[in-house]
Specification:
Length: 204
């Protein structure tokens, strides 16, 4: 008599990412939990790097690739987000020209001013715009590897270990790339680029 394979009924939402992915090998629909948990963060990351239009498509590609590769996920890591950032970063690598164009376009962006407070804000906005111009120009001139490390740490707040896992490189390489990127941007900006990128992220 044939006995069908059964999956134990549990509240998937209470499981770690690693447990959900492992379960999804038997119950593929479980992987939807991974999408629900992390898609907003991956979309934000991709939108910052390539623009919202491209991000919409690449989010889907990221999770499709993750689903297809889920058997290779290291379940020793309970959080799948660094792994997903790695997949997304690889997809960004296929759109380098668009990414650099996005940085160049952002150089010309000036936030709309409220007419009532125009006089009070114009000096601040002009200064911020000038720094934004220099920042994005410097980002566009970084090597792809250095830029990936810098943005994963500055924008997405990954630890060195998480960035290393996301990019499949040693932690020592993360440190050296970050040091090189910070040095170049510090020379261009006159201040710590990590703080500047974080501040610009909070202020749009």
């Amino acid at each position: 008599m044939h006995r069908s394979r059964r999956v134990e009924a549990v509240d998937v939402g209470t499981l770690t990412d690693a447990a959900v992915i492992e379960r999804s090998l038997r119950a593929p629909e479980s992987f939807a939990v991974i999408f629900d948990r992390h898609a907003p963060y991956i979309h934000r990351y991709l939108a910052r790097r390539l623009g919202a239009g491209i991000a919409d498509d690449l989010v889907a590609e990221t999770f499709l690739a993750a689903f297809r590769r889920r058997e290779r996920f290291d379940t020793a890591h309970p959080d799948a987000r660094p792994w997903l950032y790695g997949i997304a970063t690889n997809l960004v690598g296929q759109h380098r020209r668009e990414e650099e164009r996005e940085y160049r376009l952002r150089q010309t962006y000036i936030p709309a001013l409220n007419e009532a407070s125009h006089a009070d804000r114009v000096s601040t906005v002009v200064t911020a715009q000038s720094l934004r111009h220099v920042l994005f120009d410097a980002l566009a001139r970084l090597s792809t590897g250095d830029r990936d490390v810098l943005l994963l740490i500055a924008w997405e707040e990954l630890t060195y270990d998480e960035a290393a896992g996301a990019l499949a490189i040693p932690v020592g390489t993360v440190r050296s790339r970050l040091h090189r990127a910070r040095k170049l941007l510090r020379e261009a900006l006159g201040s710590d680029p990590i703080n500047m990128i974080e501040e610009m992220s909070r202020n749009g």
